[in-house]
Write a structure and sequence with these properties.
The complex is a heterodimer of chains A (about 280) and B (about 170). Chain A is mainly alpha-helical. Chain A has one domain. Chain A contains 11 helices and 2 strands, in the order ααααααββααααα. In chain A, strands 1-2 form a two-stranded antiparallel ribbon. In chain A, a hairpin with a 4-residue loop joins strand 1 and strand 2. Chain A starts with a helix and ends in a 9-residue tail after the last helix. The longest helix of chain B has about 90 residues. Chain B folds into 2 domains: about 120 residues, no CATH class; about 45 residues. The chains are: A mainly alpha (about 280), B mainly alpha (about 170).
Chain lengths: ~280, ~170
């Protein structure tokens, strides 16, 4: 691998980190296809490097969001348990599952989320009154609006169940679950999109720790790709998390919709038996 | 005359009784209001205390993550610089765990890079341990238990994956 390719890895990682930290994703959805399809990195090495980069993105992005108290720690812990249990079930059942049917289900679920994110409901004011039985409510200062935004997550049981299902599908298909969490929290649980992105940024790091250790044990972590990825994503996460605080929620939702559209279409094409460059 | 005095005494006693009743009523109302206010204040204080505790936890987590990343970046920078000086290119393989300590003490750049990559991987785990310790110390058993469950479940995921791969 040439120094030019290493520099390209660093730049792609920095851009992915910026976008990922803004909307609460790991950035793997951009890195894996670009690394493998355009930079000649073997797909398994690209997946391992991007998983490590997700942790760096989470640590870098969440450190900024935590400092500004935008991460809902309790909600993150509840959803992490649900998602990871789903992912365990998915990983165990992967050999007997009809993967193409599941890709189709996943793609349709993503299109559904895009529709929900585009609806007026997603941009409506958060719910601030009523019972908060699980003490999951939160508050943060939104610099773009210039006010303190308070919210109480709604339909926690349904959101947790949906999170388990999302984890199950991501475990079966081998994709990260970060891009499912933000729309789930925003549309189903009525968590403001900025708090959802910040909470998801914290969550994604925790979910991939086990996978990265497995990649290391299987010699799939290649420093030539991993080191520029880590440095690039770190720089990107610092920019992205600061941008994410100051950009209006509406723009964050629009960026998220575009990313979900790309992912849903990739999964749909794969389900229909078409080859997508760099797709897993 | 006596009759007039006794009528006045009865009227005064009646007025005193009414006044006492009013006073007791007011006192009772005041007491209820004070109790309600106290309940309200306690509930507000609990929420505020809860928010403050979670806020402090957020600050501590943010500091831990920044410190963690700073260490990783320094080790990674040193390892990468030594690596580039040595053979003008980055390593293509990580150092296995069995030989990591001995090669680290020998100042091997590949070992430094591997150590940095492993340390950054453990960052979120360190965060969970901090949440468990902070919440257990402040008496928030529920959050501590949640974080502990996450730790257990996250550790179970790679085990499940390796079983599935076999």
């Amino acid at each position: 691998m040439s120094h030019l390719a290493e520099l390209a890895v660093l730049i792609v990682a920095a851009l992915s980190g910026t976008l990922g930290a803004m909307v609460g994703l790991g950035g793997g959805v951009f890195m894996v296809p670009i690394f493998s399809a355009f930079l000649g990195v073997p797909i398994k090495t690209a997946i391992a490097a991007s998983a490590l980069a997700v942790i760096v993105n989470s640590l870098g992005g969440a450190s900024v969001y935590l400092k500004h108290r935008m991460v809902n720690i309790r909600l993150a812990l509840v959803l992490l348990i649900a998602t990871t249990l789903g992912a365990i079930a998915g990983a165990v059942l992967v050999s007997i599952a009809p993967v193409d049917v599941l890709r189709l289900v996943f793609a349709l679920a993503l299109y559904g989320m895009i529709a929900l994110l585009s609806s007026r409901r997603a941009s409506s004011d958060p719910i601030t009154s009523g019972a908060d039985r699980q003490s999951l409510g939160g508050a943060f200062y939104d610099p773009a609006a210039g006010t303190v935004v308070r919210y109480i997550p709604q339909r926690v049981a349904l959101g947790t169940a949906a999170s388990t299902f999302a984890g199950f599908l991501s475990g079966l298909l081998g994709v990260g679950g970060g891009f499912m969490q933000v729309p789930l929290m925003n549309t189903l649980m009525r968590v403001p999109v900025k708090a959802a992105a910040a909470t998801s940024a914290y969550m994604i790091g925790v979910t991939v720790v086990g996978s990265v250790l497995l990649y290391y044990a299987n010699d799939l972590l290649v420093p030539q790709v991993a080191v520029p990825s880590v440095i690039g994503v770190f720089l990107g996460s610092q920019i992205g998390s600061r941008l994410g605080r100051h950009v209006r929620g509406l723009w964050l939702r629009r960026i998220l919709i575009l990313i979900l559209l790309y992912l849903a279409t990739t999964l749909l094409l794969q389900a229909l038996g078409m080859t997508v460059p760099g797709a897993r | 005359m006596n009759e007039g005095v006794s009528q006045r005494a009865i009227a005064r006693a009646f007025c005193v009784t009414i006044a006492r009743r009013e006073a007791f009523g007011l006192l009772a109302e005041h007491s209820v209001a004070r109790q309600e206010a106290s309940t309200r204040r306690t509930s507000d204080d609990t929420t505020r205390c809860d928010e403050e505790t979670l806020g402090h936890l957020s600050d501590r987590l943010a500091r831990l993550y920044r410190f963690w990343l700073a260490i990783v970046l320094v080790v990674l920078a040193v390892g990468t610089a030594l690596d580039l000086i040595e053979d003008r290119q980055l390593e293509t393989q990580t150092v296995p765990l069995s030989g990591l300590v001995s090669r680290l003490t020998a100042g091997d750049p590949a070992a430094l890079e591997t150590a940095a990559l492993l340390v950054v991987t453990l960052g979120p785990v360190a965060g969970l341990v901090l949440i468990i310790a902070s919440c257990a110390r402040s008496g928030d058993r529920r959050t501590a238990l949640l974080a502990f469950t996450v730790l257990v479940v996250v550790a179970a995921l790679p085990v499940a994956r390796s079983f599935a791969e076999r």
